[in-house]
Amino acid sequence: MRQDILSVLKSKEASFSKGQRRIAQFILESYDKAAFMTANVLGKTVGISESTVVRFAVELGYDGYPSMQKALQEMVVNRLTAAQRIEVTNDRMVGQNVLTMVLQSDMEKLRQTGEMVDHAAFDAAVNAVLGAERVYILGVRSAAPLANFLGYYLNYMFQNVHILTASGASEMFEQIVGVNSRDAVIAFSFPRYSATTLKTAQYCHSTGATVIAVTDSKRSSLAQCSDHVLVAKSDMVSLVDSLVAPLSVVNALIVAIASKKEKELSKTFQELEHVWAEYNIYEKQEENG
Q1: What pTM, to 2 d.p., does this model score?
Q2: What is the pLDDT of residue 1?
């Protein structure tokens, strides 16, 4: 279903049974909480059976409750304020171990990312970076560490890498003056999506540059103005954005690009090892025995 679920609920409200109307009313009033409730919890909250909640989802046109919940979560996640995130997370953590919950959530996002990966888009992204005259890496706010991490390693492989992490639109545009069709732009954006990232990516795309989006959905605004989309599922953990899966995709990009430049990189790192040793960049490990 492509229509906003809240609009669907409002349009069909008159035809709902008494129990269904209670579900719809709760979702309309507290969609931020309903999106993260199981069918059982939602049923108990509004005073009806779990089976009634499941049937309600099917009658709305979904395959089942998980599909309806996913639609709710996708709609909600970009609307939540930081305060709402904390409240929702605290509700989800009741009776759970925080460390276990976060680890399990991250593993689930990695699993989902693995199932959704587009190998053709990944290979095209690698080739675009390899063939680019300049590489721009765009990530602001909580996505900035992803841009910096990728840029750190690409700087070993290429001479013309630009890391763009300024959150102000004017400063960002000043750094991309001259971007053209010979360049590649890797942009990161996850809920809550950055308007600066989107505007910059749209501009780069309009110049003919190859834009590679690393985002949580092919339906995100960033994906719509990109040539290649690498989907990496993210999640919100309280006020923190979980970026484990996106970082794994970044690691894969680095490894794939490095494998294509093996001979050049080998020479580069041989020279670097001499510099690191001469200037004691790393602690020396003493051999045991």
Answers
A1: 0.73
A2: 39
